[in-house]
Protein backbone atom coordinates (compact mmCIF):
# COMPACT_ATOMS: atom_id res chain seq x y z
CA UNK A 1 0.00 0.00 0.00
CA UNK A 2 1.32 3.47 -0.91
CA UNK A 3 2.18 5.87 1.86
CA UNK A 4 0.66 9.35 1.95
CA UNK A 5 2.38 12.35 0.41
CA UNK A 6 4.06 14.43 3.10
CA UNK A 7 5.43 17.95 3.24
CA UNK A 8 8.78 18.73 4.82
CA UNK A 9 9.49 22.21 6.10
CA UNK A 10 12.23 23.28 8.49
CA UNK A 11 13.31 26.62 9.91
CA UNK A 12 16.92 25.39 9.63
CA UNK A 13 16.94 25.87 5.84
CA UNK A 14 15.91 28.72 3.57
CA UNK A 15 12.11 29.02 3.42
CA UNK A 16 10.35 28.38 0.14
CA UNK A 17 10.22 31.61 -1.84
CA UNK A 18 7.28 30.78 -4.08
CA UNK A 19 4.41 28.36 -4.61
CA UNK A 20 6.31 25.22 -3.54
CA UNK A 21 7.59 23.48 -0.41
CA UNK A 22 11.14 22.69 0.68
CA UNK A 23 10.48 18.99 0.10
CA UNK A 24 7.82 16.35 -0.30
CA UNK A 25 7.88 12.71 0.69
CA UNK A 26 6.22 9.69 -0.85
CA UNK A 27 6.73 5.95 -0.39
CA UNK A 28 9.88 6.36 1.65
CA UNK A 29 11.52 8.90 -0.66
CA UNK A 30 12.15 12.59 -0.13
CA UNK A 31 12.13 14.96 -3.10
CA UNK A 32 14.01 18.15 -2.23
CA UNK A 33 13.20 21.31 -4.17
CA UNK A 34 16.01 23.31 -5.75
CA UNK A 35 18.02 24.97 -3.00
CA UNK A 36 19.54 28.33 -3.75
CA UNK A 37 22.14 29.68 -1.32
CA UNK A 38 19.56 31.69 0.61
CA UNK A 39 20.01 31.92 4.38
CA UNK A 40 17.32 30.94 6.87
CA UNK A 41 16.44 34.59 7.47
CA UNK A 42 15.91 34.96 3.69
CA UNK A 43 19.04 37.07 3.33
CA UNK A 44 20.88 36.55 0.08
CA UNK A 45 24.44 35.41 -0.59
CA UNK A 46 24.59 36.25 -4.32
CA UNK A 47 27.24 38.91 -3.70
CA UNK A 48 29.41 36.44 -1.77
CA UNK A 49 32.01 34.04 -3.16
CA UNK A 50 31.07 30.85 -4.97
CA UNK A 51 32.43 28.85 -2.02
CA UNK A 52 30.05 30.60 0.41
CA UNK A 53 27.14 30.07 -1.97
CA UNK A 54 27.94 26.37 -2.48
CA UNK A 55 28.22 25.72 1.25
CA UNK A 56 24.93 27.53 1.96
CA UNK A 57 23.03 25.61 -0.75
CA UNK A 58 24.44 22.30 0.54
CA UNK A 59 23.63 23.29 4.13
CA UNK A 60 20.01 23.96 3.13
CA UNK A 61 19.85 20.55 1.44
CA UNK A 62 21.28 18.73 4.48
CA UNK A 63 18.98 20.53 6.93
CA UNK A 64 15.97 19.47 4.87
CA UNK A 65 17.28 15.88 4.82
CA UNK A 66 17.56 15.98 8.62
CA UNK A 67 14.04 17.39 8.97
CA UNK A 68 12.78 14.41 6.96
CA UNK A 69 14.65 11.97 9.19
CA UNK A 70 17.32 11.28 6.60
CA UNK A 71 21.01 12.06 6.08
CA UNK A 72 23.59 12.47 3.28
CA UNK A 73 24.28 8.71 3.22
CA UNK A 74 20.67 8.24 2.07
CA UNK A 75 20.95 10.52 -0.98
CA UNK A 76 20.11 8.73 -4.22
CA UNK A 77 20.43 11.49 -6.83
CA UNK A 78 21.68 15.07 -6.70
CA UNK A 79 21.36 17.61 -9.51
CA UNK A 80 23.54 20.71 -9.38
CA UNK A 81 22.99 23.74 -11.61
CA UNK A 82 26.16 25.82 -12.06
CA UNK A 83 26.31 29.18 -13.78
CA UNK A 84 30.06 29.06 -14.38
CA UNK A 85 31.62 25.65 -15.16
CA UNK A 86 34.92 27.12 -13.98
CA UNK A 87 33.48 26.52 -10.47
CA UNK A 88 33.12 22.77 -11.09
CA UNK A 89 36.44 21.75 -9.43
CA UNK A 90 35.75 24.01 -6.44
CA UNK A 91 32.28 22.55 -6.11
CA UNK A 92 33.65 18.98 -6.27
CA UNK A 93 36.01 19.75 -3.39
CA UNK A 94 33.29 21.33 -1.20
CA UNK A 95 30.78 18.60 -2.12
CA UNK A 96 33.20 15.82 -1.13
CA UNK A 97 34.03 17.60 2.12
CA UNK A 98 30.38 18.13 3.07
CA UNK A 99 29.07 14.70 2.01
CA UNK A 100 32.05 12.71 3.24
CA UNK A 101 31.66 9.02 2.37
CA UNK A 102 28.26 9.56 0.72
CA UNK A 103 28.54 9.33 -3.07
CA UNK A 104 25.07 9.57 -4.62
CA UNK A 105 24.46 9.62 -8.35
CA UNK A 106 24.96 13.21 -9.50
CA UNK A 107 24.51 15.48 -12.49
CA UNK A 108 26.02 18.91 -12.93
CA UNK A 109 24.14 21.06 -15.40
CA UNK A 110 25.78 24.23 -16.72
CA UNK A 111 23.20 27.02 -16.98
CA UNK A 112 23.49 30.61 -18.25
CA UNK A 113 21.93 32.16 -15.15
CA UNK A 114 19.92 31.49 -12.00
CA UNK A 115 17.34 33.51 -10.08
CA UNK A 116 18.69 36.57 -8.19
CA UNK A 117 22.09 36.16 -9.88
CA UNK A 118 23.11 33.11 -7.84
CA UNK A 119 25.91 30.81 -9.04
CA UNK A 120 24.45 27.49 -7.84
CA UNK A 121 21.20 25.61 -7.17
CA UNK A 122 20.91 22.02 -5.90
CA UNK A 123 17.99 19.58 -5.80
CA UNK A 124 17.96 15.95 -4.70
CA UNK A 125 16.11 12.71 -4.10
CA UNK A 126 16.86 10.64 -0.99
CA UNK A 127 15.58 7.69 1.00
CA UNK A 128 13.95 8.14 4.37
CA UNK A 129 15.25 5.24 6.46
CA UNK A 130 12.61 3.04 8.05
CA UNK A 131 12.52 3.32 11.81
From TrEMBL:
One of its GO terms (cellular component) is cytosol. GO terms for molecular function: deaminase activity. SUPFAM superfamilies: YjgF-like. InterPro entries: RidA (IPR006056), RutC-like_sf (IPR035959), YjgF/YER057c/UK114 (IPR006175). Belongs to the RutC family. This is Reactive intermediate/imine deaminase. It comes from Dyadobacter koreensis.
Amino acid sequence: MAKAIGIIETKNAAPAGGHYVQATTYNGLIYISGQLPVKTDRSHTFSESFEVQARQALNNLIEILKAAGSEPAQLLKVTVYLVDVENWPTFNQIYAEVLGAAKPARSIVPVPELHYGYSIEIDAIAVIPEI
